Amino acid sequence: MADFTDVTNVPELPDIRVSAAVFDCDGTLVDSEQCWLDLLHELITELGLSPDEFGDVRGITAFEAAQRLSPHTDYTVHELNVLIDARYTQALHNVTTALPGVDKLLRSLHGVVPIAVATNGRREDVVGMLQRSGIANYFDVIITVEDVEHGKPHPEIYQVACERLGARPESTVVFEDSAVGASAAQAAGCNVIGLSLKKEGTYPARDVRDVEFDGATARLRITADSRFRLATWNIWWGGQKVRNGQQKISDIIREINPEIICFQECFGEYAKEVSQDTGRQHVQQGFDCAISTSFPTDQDDSNNRIELISTNTEPYATAAWIWIAGTRVLVWSVHLAPWDYGPYAALKGEDPAVMNKQPEEIQRQEQIAKILDLSDELTDYDPDAAVVIAGDFNSPATTDWQQRDDLPDYRWIPTDAPIQRGYRDGFREIYPDANTVWGDTWAPIEPLDSEPRDRIDFVFIKNLAVESAVIRGIKVSDTEAYDPPERRSDSPHQGCFESLDSNGRLIPHQEDNTYPSDHQMVELTLRITR
Question: Is the terminal CB of the chain with fewer CB neighbours within 10 Å at N or C?
């Protein structure tokens, strides 16, 4: 389901003059898509099958659903088609209201440009829903699956809609909520506004706050709201430590699909190959750190694109400019020096002054100082520049160790340095109390008696708002005394962790883990504030 208060927009579609508007129905005008999904889920289960076998069923016709199911049952395609149609018609009687913002937009379009519905649904069902929702009278034409030879994703339904409206596709705007429908409209040559398409990764898309039609000028104005999701993920030798690790990395990226991923431990070409496999753009400097994005590298698109920045930080950091809804953001993927790991000494009670003079601890301090200095230079010391420094710091956070009752009070210079330069710890913006949310990212599959857990993967931000934060990763099935408070049944913060593999095994038995890393992934939803 989508609504007109939260839509995503193909970047090539700025302020356009509209000669006609065409709307998908299910999930775009009315909240009927969930009826369809629930119906098919129930039917598949009744037939003794698994819903996972049949992929995404958004936007397909009842006939296509029957074709998919029939080979696995004793029913013919026709019998299943009739059954699905009957159940769907009955379920749709509960659909009586339009989605938020629909009535306002239709009223502004009505009488100025012709309006159509183009849907894979049946006419009886579609007309009934529109009438019960009180919006049927806005439409000049209703095109259903009975009016065409080919349903979506074939472009015929949108070609017919344009013909009957007397409109040119290049000046027709289509509102769609599924990848199937958006592909059909785009193939017909129409402009497409995709509602909630970001989850499906169909287009490089940006959020928009509002869609408003100016009847006096026949222009559709789209107001950008520059939200984006950014994740940092150390992929552990490029996924080589588990079987089919590279494929498992790709599968996870397809599932969660953040606009930006900062990779560490790329081991040469692995992040590039994963990005190519998942249809993403990739920039990388050196062997270790990369940035992958669903935005294009097209230099002609100033709204959403990525561009590698050449720096002298090749062994431990990659930087890129990423344009998000026309705003330039400096993004770093960093992997600070791994040896002389401070928590080993700190948990033994060693002197911090001695610990902070270890060779690679000094190197970590120098590396982050270099990144911070370069960030100032690259942004021309602009105090309002949006910057992200994300990655594996191989150092905990001072605030975590100061707040947690089970840890000694130590100061960690590499992660203090960004804070002292005006950056904010994005995860702790959402979960400020380290006693109630540990947020550990390292090392979930190391035996607890050989490796202490800690939060060493960070997203430091400047001039960006944080709207949400989540740690995604692995839970181990091996019995051990690891009990983070946020995962307890009485915690109000259980949502801060999402398991992508609930049956992980500890090293050295990790080869068949579904989650291919020894670091958890940190993901933030961010918004540009200027």
Answer: C
